[in-house]
Please model this.
Amino acid sequence: MTGYKRVSEMTLEEKREKVAGFNVMDDVFFQKMMEDKEVCEEILRIILENSKMRVIECVPQASIKNLNGKSVVLDVLCRDSDGKYCNVEVQKADDDDHQKRVRYNAALVSMYTMQAGKDYKELPDVKVVFISRFDVFKADHAMYHVDRVVRETGQKVENGQSEIYVNTKGKDKTLVSELMEYFTDSNGRKEICPKLSNRVMMFKTEQKEVTEMCELMEKERLAGWEEGKQGERIRLIVNLVDKLGMSFEEACRFMEIPQEKIEEYRRKVKGNIN
Model:
């Protein structure tokens, strides 16, 4: 495989060149952006259309145990000044039942936030914001709100749980659509999201942050392989092709995909590479 170097072998300019291709839709890059509470707040204010909301707590890679005691990692879990919770998920590959994933995450957060001995009326509101590189509902909108409605009367029912699906494909000239354009082309500074774009540029230009970003991406690759998860390997192959400029074959060699599995991976990766 040509052209690939480990982070420890790169010059600063080579690192900057690699990081230049990253964008907010990349998992590790997104997590670093959301470590800053003010950046998280800025993004949510646009998506939730609430310029006054305040994020009190923002936890990337929040680990929550389900009823079986297994830990499930959420991309980001936030709490606002009203005590409401918001789980933000970013998904690049269209390889799962995403609506059921949203339902599962909402149930986990509800269970996590419900204190023993409290009445159900005290259960905090939970919102899941699912951001994807594909249009879940294929109706050419950048954002969809999913509501609970009584079939017989058409009455909207509020139970404290809500779902919002955002995607980078919808070009409806809304603020959310403009924000999503920056999620996929994260270069320069953006007027509608100055805090986010300033942090993006810091991690693409400053020596310490550039090196940290490269090291995190390298660790992610190694961790994904060691865990033996096919979905994780597919996502990493997509990143290697999209962000490091490798061919599909080079990425498979780098990931040490067995020869007999190459065509299987090719089919599953197809459609997820820009």
